Amino acid sequence: GRNLLRTTRVRPFASLWRNASTLTFLETSQGKGLTPSSLSVLSAAKQLKNPIVAILLGPDAKESSSTLLEKFECLGLEKVIVVGDKRLEHYLPELVSPLLKDLLSKGDYSHFVMASNYVGKSILPRVAALLDNQPVCDVVAIKDPKTFVRPIYAGNALSVVKCSQDKTLISIRASAFEPVTAGSSKTAKIEELNYERTEEVDIRWEGCKMVDSDMPDLTSAKIVVAGGRALKDKETFDSLLVPLAKKLHGAIGATRAAVDNGFCNNSLQVGQTGKIVAPDLYIAAGISGAVQHLAGMKDSKIVVAINNDPDAPIFKNADLGIEGDVFEILPELTKKLP
Ligand code: FAD
Questions:
Q1: How much is the pTM?
Q2: Does the interface predicted TM-score (ipTM) exceed 0.95?
Q3: Does the pLDDT at position 3 exceed 60?
Q4: Which atom of ligand 1 is found nearest the CA of 312?
Q5: Lower Cβ count inside 10 Å, N or C end of the chain?
Q6: Is the shortest distance between the CB of 24 and ligand 1 below 6 Å?
C-alpha cells in the first residue's frame, strides 16, 4: 500500500500549468538522413499541440539536424538537441536511456515520443523505469494529449488509455501516423550537447549484418506483395513474387507458414510475431488470413487477396478478391502490368 501511494502521482492537468513541450527522439540511418519512422514520430508529436524539441544522436546527428530544420520548420520546432558522440551511433539502450532520463527530468517536457521499433522497444521501458513512470507503448491514435489508442490482444481489440502522470511517455506505431512532409524553411536553434558519461557499460556494440536486398523496406513500403504456404517452396516463392514486387516497386512479405517452411527469411514475416505494416496496397497471395497474420496487415489501405478457396477468411478482410490459382494469377498479373 505505502509503496503504491508513493509511486502514483496523479496530476491530471499538469500540462496546463507547466510550460508544456514535447521531446521527440529521431533516428538517422547511416548517412541516409532521418528514418521514415522519425517523420511519423514528428507527425504524432504535432498532434500533441505543444512546441516540439527533437533529439538526434550519433555521428550523423549534426548533418541530419540541419536537414531537419531546413525542411521541417513548418512543424514549429523549438530546437534540435544534437549529441554527436560516436558512442551513441547504434542507440545502445544502456547508454541512451540515462541520457534521456537526465534530459526529461531537467527539462519542462510534458511529453516524450519515439517510434515503437526495435530501438524504441529497447529504450522506452528503460527510460520510463529510470523516471518511475509508466509509458504508453504502441500508440496508433492520439485522441487528446493525455488520451491514446493502442492495440491489445495482438491487435484484435483497441484500448483507449488515459495518462494522468505529469510526464507522458509514448511510443507510436509508425504505420499509423502519416509521415510529416516538408514545409517552408526558417532556422530554429540547434543545441549541441556533450555526452559526459565516461564510465564503461557492460554492453558493447559488436557489429551488424544487414540483409542485402534491392527491395524497399517492408515496414515503410507503399506496396507489399505477400505470399503464404501456397507458394510451395523457396524457388516458386521467389519466381512468382519477386517479379511482381519489382514491377510495383513494392516489398515482399510472408506468412509464418512461409517462413517456417524456409521460403524466405524471417525478417519478411508479417503478423503478430512479425512486422506490422499498413501500405497503400497489400497483395495477399495464397494466404488463408489467420488472425495472427491479419494482426500485421489489416490496416493496409487496399487489400487484394488471391486464393483458390472461396471460403478462405482472407476474403472477408479484402477489398478485392481473386478466386484462383496463384500459379496462374501471379504470372498473368505480372505480365499485364506495364
Ligand atoms: P495456410 O493457413 O496453410 O493457408 C494457405 C492458403 O493458401 C489457404 O487459404 C489455401 O486455400 C490457399 N491456397 C493453397 N493453394 C493455393 C493455390 N494454388 N492458389 C491459391 N491459393 C492457394 N502467422 C503469420 O502469418 N504471422 C505471424 O506473425 C504469426 N504469428 C503467430 C503467433 C502465434 C502465437 C501462433 C499460434 C500462430 C502465428 N501465426 C502467424 C500462424 C498463423 O496462425 C497461420 O498458421 C499462418 O498465418 C498461416 O499461413 P498461410 O496463410 O501461409 O498458410
A1: 0.78
A2: yes
A3: no
A4: 9
A5: C
A6: no
